[in-house]
From TrEMBL:
Function, as annotated: Catalyzes the reversible reaction in which hydroxymethyl group from 5,10-methylenetetrahydrofolate is transferred onto alpha-ketoisovalerate to form ketopantoate.
Recorded catalytic activity of this chain's protein: (6R)-5,10-methylene-5,6,7,8-tetrahydrofolate + 3-methyl-2-oxobutanoate + H2O = 2-dehydropantoate + (6S)-5,6,7,8-tetrahydrofolate
Gene3D superfamilies reported in the protein's UniProt record: Phosphoenolpyruvate-binding domains (3.20.20.60)
Cellular component per GO, a single term: mitochondrion
Molecular functions (GO terms): 3-methyl-2-oxobutanoate hydroxymethyltransferase activity; magnesium ion binding
Stored InterPro entries: Pantoate_hydroxy_MeTrfase, Pyrv/PenolPyrv_kinase-like_dom, Pyrv_kinase-like_dom_sf
Protein name: 3-methyl-2-oxobutanoate hydroxymethyltransferase
Family the UniProt entry places it in: Belongs to the PanB family.
Record key words, sorted: Pantothenate biosynthesis, Transferase
Keyword Transferase recorded: yes
Organism: Zygosaccharomyces mellis
Any one biological process term the GO annotation gives: pantothenate biosynthetic process
UniProt EC number: 2.1.2.11
Length: 324
């Protein structure tokens, strides 16, 4: 009788080690709408930062921030425009692609800039699809909407997006794209009962339209608390106080990348503009004093025999060309 071959324990473990000795790297686990909603349900504040290019995006990823917002605020903070409405759609898409080249866990959501959806529902849907197709890293679009009593179009547009499976963050309160109709960059819902009521109703209608989250900008913290408590989706605040489900800040403001005046609600966590100025001045000083580059630290060497051979060749050529 032929007995079946049995592997010894020692041989089996050795074979397994050989088979699995090369392991693929662990993939980066990216945050999703679902994972952010789970944090919301647990009462864990959601952290969001804007980013406007590959470098700032990688900073946000490396900090393990929950989400990145590619906001049209980059028109003013990174490109020098006077308003968020000045940037073209094509120019904005260039920045989306740059942000999405960075790799990390932060979920990416993207503004629909002014002019990308106002002309018609169909044009807006096509542009939203265009944004989502720029990169598989884009998880959601964000749409600014005015008070529902005046801006019935945008609520309807958001419904159309959500009905097509395009995730949407609704943005209400201070909406920079509509700053002219709002009388400038001013706190919203702080003057009349009617304004507070309409703001609360607008937030509720965004939820009913299918938004998975709301960005609430520049409103009194009590109003923001009330809205957060009366809807069942995350409320990301900016200038809306600590009672929201999470917070977002513009990275250029947060890190002190410019010397522009800042809104009241911004806290600076860095002074990159000052640090950069100091570094550049030190660089200029060392160049002018000939202390940079340092020959031992910052240059490349060549073997002496090779260099000697090169000089000998130069001398021979010079002598051949100048026999006298």
């Amino acid at each position: 009788m032929i007995r079946p071959l049995r592997l010894t324990t020692r041989f089996s473990s050795l074979a397994l080690r050989r088979c699995y000795s090369v392991q693929p790297p662990n993939p980066i686990r990216t945050n999703t709408i679902q994972s952010l909603h789970e944090k919301y349900l647990k009462g864990i504040p959601i952290t969001v930062s804007t980013a406007h290019d590959y470098i700032t995006s990688q900073w946000v990823h490396d900090s393990n921030c929950d989400a990145i917002l590619v906001g049209d605020s980059l028109a003013m903070t990174a490109l020098g425009y006077d308003s968020t409405t000045d940037i073209s759609f094509n120019e904005f898409k260039y920045h989306i692609q740059s942000v999405c080249r960075a790799q990390g866990p932060s979920m990416v959501m993207v503004d629909m800039p002014f002019g990308s959806f106002e002309s018609s529902i169909q044009m807006g849907i096509a542009n939203a699809i265009d944004i989502m197709k720029l990169s598989s890293n884009v998880a959601s679009v964000k749409v600014e909407t005015g008070p529902h009593t005046k801006d019935t179009y945008t609520i309807g547009f958001i419904k159309e997006l959500c009905s097509r499976g395009i995730p949407v963050v609704g943005h209400c309160g201070l909406t920079p794209q509509r700053s002219h109709s709002l009388g400038g960059f001013k706190v919203q819902g702080n003057k009349r009962i009617e304004d507070i009521t309409v703001l609360c109703e607008t937030a509720k209608k965004l939820e009913e339209a299918g938004c998975w989250a709301i960005l609430l900008e520049c409103v009194p913290h009590k109003v923001a608390n009330y809205i957060t408590s009366n809807i069942s989706i995350p409320v990301i605040g900016i200038g809306a106080g600590p009672g929201c489900s999470g917070q977002v800040l513009v990275i250029a403001d947060m890190l002190g990348m410019t010397q522009k005046s800042l809104p009241r609600f911004v806290k600076q966590y860095g002074q990159l503009h000052s640090n950069a100025q100091d570094a550049l001045k030190e660089y200029m000083k060392e160049v002018q004093e000939s202390t940079f580059p340092n020959k031992e630290m910052h240059t490349f060497k060549i073997k002496e025999d090779l260099w000697k051979s090169f000089l000998d060749d130069v001398n021979k050529n010079n002598n051949a060309n100048n026999p006298n």
